[in-house]
Amino acid sequence: MSSKxxxxxxxxxxxSSLKKKSTKSQSRSKKADLxxxxxxIARFLKKGRYSNRVGAAAPVYLAAVLEYLTAELLELAGNxxxxxxxxxxxxxxxxxxxxxxxxxxxxxxGITIASGGVIPNIQPVLLPKTKGKKxxxxxxxxx
Length: 143
Known about the structure:
By secondary structure, the protein is mainly alpha-helical. Helix content is 55%, strand content 0%. It is elongated, with a radius of gyration of 30 Å.
């Protein structure tokens, strides 16, 4: 019975010391104000054996870059879906967003997006010739 009393005193003392220390631990993602998981990216960098050592700032920087690229792609794909009067982004909208943006097209040049289709493009030579007005089609032969 006396051992129970001692245990309760020590736990009570520990809880009071925890109350004094009100600093709550924050994740690295929260500290960097990011949505992407910095800790998980750090783990992947370490387990991937890309190098012997991984700096503290490397996963934060990589998470920030990935988050920026994702936000950019989602914004453009969302615009493409709105252009087609759709509320859901499908692979076709991602394909249109990537191929119509010069920088994203250069970054994702060698990839194939499944169910993305192709960019609509008809060579001008294949289009039927439009007949213009009488005066426009004829040029003078004078040199």
